[in-house]
Specification:
Radius of gyration of chain C: 20 Å
Structural class of chain C: mainly alpha
Low-confidence stretches of chain A: 161-167, 390-427
Strand order of the largest sheet of chain A: 1-2
Number of helices of chain C: 4
Distance between the termini of chain C: 66 Å
Radius of gyration of chain A: 25 Å
Strand order of the largest sheet of chain C: 1-2
Shape of chain C: elongated
Mean pLDDT of chain A: 82
Helix content of chain A: over 70%
Largest interface: A-C, 50 and 51 residues
Largest sheet of chain C: 2 strands, antiparallel
Helix content of chain C: 40-55%
Strand content of chain C: under 5%
Low-confidence stretches of chain C: 1-56
Order of helices and strands of chain C: HHHEEH
Chains: A mainly alpha (487), B mainly alpha (464), C mainly alpha (111)
Oligomer: heterotrimer
């Protein structure tokens, strides 16, 4: 044994649990900050106290959960320090300065949040100033997010060899190419908008729960309107996700092919306990979409503040369907049909809940809040579990500190040398080669259609079509395919 | 592990580290003390049906709420800074203390949950179920104290490591011997009472200023009450510290003699002397205030006993070299000063009934002195251990030759026949080459040529 | 709700009503016994914090009555220290964010 054992859960799941707990809370905090800003502005523009009160109540929850998020982050730091010291130290060698800046942003955020909440009733004569302070939280969160996603993206897509070289030549706290890695932008955009949607759906969920608990007509009206506003804001953010998701998947396909394959065909840790959790996430998203569509159809004549035009909803629904159709083609048709079934099921359920509660959105709000929570958790899980055990420089969570293996990366001379300028490549396995070289043009499913005996010819044909293989690679690939080993 | 060293701009790495640490520690200690005292005050208010105590407890918790998020955010900076700037130390240290750190994480989580959701938010809702509310307050306090307990254990280990610091690939996770290291109980006790003492003295000072400004008689009465109560508690708690501190110093003398000597006359002693000066100010003016204001004989007797306790400690302590004239002058001096102080106190008894504008300001200054004495305590401890991250085991990566030579000199020379590094001054005229050679020739002395050269260089450069 | 509890609340409210004196300093504000929902003199008519919502007045939460009013007031009615504190903090935060932004942009160009 050369590492600390974490009983029952194991090191990987211990980190995963804390990280998911942190993500669930921190993402909610980001979403809350955004929603509070929107609701407070709405209150001011329409001189409507309901929105302002809702914003304040949500901000109080935010103040309380913010610290839980902070402490989870600390727990994550401690856990990584003990369980993955080599990985963790290496990350700091590469990204020390971004992490310190991120830390400073943490402080800015915590203080701004505290001031925003505790000064709420002291600044009624300076309402715009107060609103501005609340609005400021979102760009602060975005900056913080920007940094943390630079690191998160790096763990999945390290970029080209140039970035690897930069570590070898002595990175001291700032790995430019590693930070601005290929998936960084997509991850940042995806998570930012997903958090806005998640936080606002979360508010809708809280309003839904409170509607079940109160009988006061005025209070009910308050939560009904609050839930409606939160639902609309959430859906507005939700609209952008398939577009970003498409480009994100595109980046993964070229830059983190193994992760892409794991996600699309249900390989690796994406499947746990016999369930493909990436599928589950998308099936839930489909049902959320169905629920949203019914809800909008029922409330489309609404003239209350912050409405979304029907045409936008319909066009985006169409976009979603195209997206899932495309996903289904890449993944499997079974997946597509399940999605469709859940989408329709969600729409029917939403309609039923609205009728059952005589037009009140309580059931829809509560359910959508729960579903969005589940999708955030599943999304985070899928991303982490799709990552290969080793991706170039970064060992995965399974691989705990092995000094003799990993140290050379960290003990290199600080100044460039001729030796350091030579980019070392780990030997690539045939399976990985196939995934990298073949899926540029077609899916892996197609490979299964060929008989085993014919691979010499097929591989040559593929080279004619444009596949770039060295002699050694050709041998490896052909042998692997002939033997019918898993891809 | 041999990781590259990240250099910091503008100031050396230790300055950045101290900066981030001191941005967090005053907030964290204040929160810990407030969380403990708030339910105590609330209980007293409940039992005595005195709403003033409830108001005081509530205001402390409110203040805690405001500080908690920024404090926690700054706290996360501490491990971040260490991981990047002292990666080897952090990796090995967190390897040794992995499970206490995990416990720490859980304590933090529970602390926040009880403080925010069960104590703060429930204040009004549980107004009719006060004992339950108070119970939640104590739970929050308990987790706050447990957090401090873990930190003090890990901090104590850095000064008195009872087991070797393991390598990263020699997993430990939990070591009872390391956790319960020799200085841990004293460090914990010292900081526990110090937290209460400095925060209450400071709070008393703030309340005194508010008292001075208030025009509303009802409010004035409340702030007068709050100032008196908190200041008195802070002052009385202070008297525990000389006893804990004395034992703490003895443990250091035994387990980490170089640290002890660094504080007692060595390079860290100027900070310690300033700290003692602040404490002298605190005791003199704080004591005078209490004697002038208090009718309660028990409080006055406690203060008198406390001063006698300080006298006792100075008496059993070997004579210090803080003033010229030798041991007799030293002993006579502190006897006269302490006796004079007591006489001064008792003659001032109850002579402060009339209002005085300067008194609240003085109370506030006493509070500030207590705070700086507290802050200097931690700083002194850290400075005394330099250049080691962990005493005698892990030298910090940016060690300066001066620091390394100083440590060697203390270690080799002071241990045998010097009571304090200040005694180096007594060799006049100083021919350090000859002196070191003479000392090396003594039986049982083990100093290599290279070490002798370094020791001589240090002495020549610093004791000319 | 018992009479005793009601009295206690009234006492607290009376205490709190003294708290927002115009000369209050930030520190004073911070050490005031204002838990969430306890009200300042001015917030008697405006404050509807969730903490206050936890005070169950007969028939519903305390803030129910406040839903109808959007209580803007003259800028001069705000405590000066509060406005000053917020301005200082926002100024600091904006400068800090600008600095971080510059760092991120420069960082994209230089190793």
């Amino acid at each position: 044994m050369n590492h600390i054992e974490f009983p029952i859960l194991g090191a990987k799941w211990a980190i995963g649990s804390i990280a998911l707990f942190h993500t669930a809370v921190a993402s909610l905090a980001i979403g809350f900050a955004f929603f509070v800003a929107v609701a407070e502005i709405m209150g001011y523009v329409h001189k409507n106290r309901q929105y302002d009160l809702l914003a304040k109540r949500v901000q109080l929850i935010h103040v309380c959960i913010y610290n839980i998020g902070t402490i989870n982050a600390i727990g994550l730091v401690f856990a990584l320090s003990g369980l993955f010291p080599q990985f963790w130290s290496q990350i700091f060698v590469q990204f020390y300065w971004p992490l310190i800046v991120e830390e400073f942003l943490f402080f800015l955020l915590a203080t701004t949040l505290t001031f925003h909440y505790f000064f709420w009733d002291r600044l009624w004569g300076h309402k715009k100033l107060h609103i501005f302070m609340g609005v400021l939280l979102t760009p602060m969160f975005f900056l913080q997010f920007y940094i943390i996603n630079g690191l998160g993206g790096f763990m999945l897509t390290q970029g080209v060899g140039e970035a690897e070289l930069s570590l070898r030549t002595g990175i001291l706290g700032w790995d430019r190419l590693g930070f601005y890695n290929p998936s960084f932008l997509m991850l940042t955009l995806h998570r930012t908008l997903a958090n806005f949607a998640y936080g606002s759906f979360g508010v809708a969920g809280i309003c839904g729960a409170m509607l079940y608990l109160t009988n006061r007509p005025k209070v009910k009206a308050f939560y009904e309107e609050g839930g409606r506003l939160a639902f609309y804001v959430a859906f507005a953010a939700f609209l952008s996700l398939p577009i970003i998701g498409y480009f994100y998947a595109h980046v993964l396909r070229t830059q983190a092919n193994e992760a892409f394959v794991n996600l699309m065909w249900g390989r690796g840790d994406v499947v746990a306990g016999g369930v493909d959790w990436w599928w589950v996430k998308h099936i839930l998203v489909a049902s959320m979409l169905g629920m949203c569509l019914t809800y909008f159809m029922r409330t489309s004549d609404d003239k209350r503040p912050f409405n979304i035009p029907n045409i936008m909803v319909i066009s985006v629904a169409g976009f979603y369907i195209m997206f899932y159709l495309a996903m289904g083609m890449i993944m499997t048709w079974a997946f597509f049909w399940w999605m469709l079934a859940f989408g329709i099921g969600g729409a029917c359920l939403s309609g039923h809940l609205l009728s059952y509660h005589q037009g009140s959105g309580r059931g829809v709000y509560l359910l959508i809040g729960i579903l969005s929570f589940a999708t955030v958790l599943l999304g985070g899980y899928a991303r982490e579990s799709a990552r290969p055990r080793f991706v170039d420089r970064i060992s995965h969570y399974d691989q705990v500190f092995v000094p003799e293996d990993r140290q050379p990366y960290l003990m290199l001379p600080l100044k460039p040398t001729t030796e350091a300028a030579t980019v070392m490549k780990e030997p690539v396995g045939a399976g990985e080669l196939i995934r990298k070289k073949c899926t540029g043009c077609h899916t892996l499913d197609r490979i299964k259609n060929y008989p085993r005996t014919n691979w010499d010819t097929v591989v040559r044909q593929m080279e004619v079509y444009g596949a770039r293989l060295s002699d050694k690679e050709r041998e490896l690939v052909t042998a692997h395919l002939k033997e019918g080993k898993p891809l | 592990m041999d990781l590259p060293i990240i250099q910091t701009p503008i100031a050396p790495r230790w300055v950045w580290m101290e900066e981030v640490t001191y941005s967090h520690i005053p907030i964290a200690t204040l929160i810990t003390a407030f969380l403990l005292l708030a339910p105590i005050y609330e209980t007293i208010g409940y039992l005595r049906k005195d709403p003033r105590f409830d108001r005081l407890a509530k205001s402390m918790v409110f203040f805690t709420m405001i500080l908690y998020s920024p404090g926690a955010a700054l706290g996360t900076g501490i491990p971040m800074f260490i991981i990047g700037l002292w990666p080897e130390f952090w990796s090995r240290w967190s390897n040794l203390f992995f499970w206490p750190l995990m416990g720490q994480f859980m304590f933090f989580l529970l602390d926040v949950i009880f403080l925010f959701f069960f104590y703060y938010l429930m204040w009004e809702k549980l107004a009719d179920r006060k004992p339950l509310h108070i119970f939640f307050g104590f739970l929050s306090a308990l987790f706050g104290i447990l957090i401090q307990l873990v930190w003090d254990s890990l901090g104590g280990y850095m000064t008195t490591p009872s087991v070797p610091l393991p390598m990263v690939n020699e997993p430990v996770g939990w070591s009872a011997a390391a956790f319960f290291n020799p200085s841990f109980p004293y460090l914990f006790a010292h900081r526990f009472f110090a937290n209460i003492s400095y925060t209450m003295l400071l709070l008393g000072g703030v309340f005194a200023l508010k008292y001075m400004r208030q025009k509303d008689p009802q409010e004035k009465a409340y702030f007068g009450f709050a100032a008196d109560l908190t200041f008195t508690i802070g002052f009385l708690c202070f008297f525990v510290m000389p006893f804990v501190g004395w034992n703490f110093a003895r443990v250091l003398q035994e387990e980490s003699p170089v640290v002890f000597h660094a504080i007692m006359g060595g390079h860290a002693s100027p900070y310690f002397v300033v700290k003692m000066g602040l404490i002298a100010f605190l005791v003199s003016f704080g004591g005078a205030y209490l004697f002038m204001r208090h009718r309660n004989r028990a409080v006055l007797a406690f203060i008198t006993a406390g001063i006698a306790g300080i006298y006792y400690i100075l008496h059993v302590h070997p004579p210090l070299h803080w003033i010229p004239g030798g041991p007799t002058v030293w002993r006579v001096s502190y006897t006269v000063v302490l006796a004079g102080l007591l006489i001064f106190f008792w003659t001032r008894k109850r002579k402060g009934e009339e209002e005085s504008a300067s008194r609240p300001r003085l109370m506030f200054l006493v509070g500030l002195a207590a705070f700086f004495a507290f802050a200097l305590g931690g700083f002194t401890r850290e400075r005394a251990r330099q250049p080691y991250n962990v005493y005698g085991q892990l030298v910090k990566s940016e060690v300066l030759p001066l620091e390394a030579d100083r440590w060697l000199t203390y270690e080799k020379c002071i241990m045998c026949h010097h009571q304090s590094p200040a005694e180096f001054e007594r060799y006049k005229p100083k021919d350090w080459v000859a002196r070191v050679k003479t000392e090396r020739d003594r039986p049982g002395v083990n100093i290599s040529d290279e070490e002798a050269e370094r020791i001589t260089r240090f002495l020549q450069e610093n004791y000319r | 709700m018992s009479d005793e509890a009601e009295n206690r609340r009234q006492e607290t409210a009376e205490q709190e009503s003294h708290e927002d004196s115009p000369d209050k300093s930030p520190h004073e504000g911070a050490t005031e016994p204002q838990t969430e929902g306890n009200s300042d003199a001015d917030s008697k008519e405006q404050s509807t914090s969730p903490g206050a919502a936890t005070k169950e007045v007969p028939g519903g939460p305390a803030w129910e009555a406040e839903i109808d009013v959007y209580p803007l007031r003259e800028a001069t009615e705000d405590a000066k220290w509060a406005v000053r504190t917020v301005w200082i903090w926002i100024g600091f935060a904006l400068v800090a964010m600008g600095f971080i932004l510059v760092l991120l942009i420069l960082g994209a160009m230089h190793d």
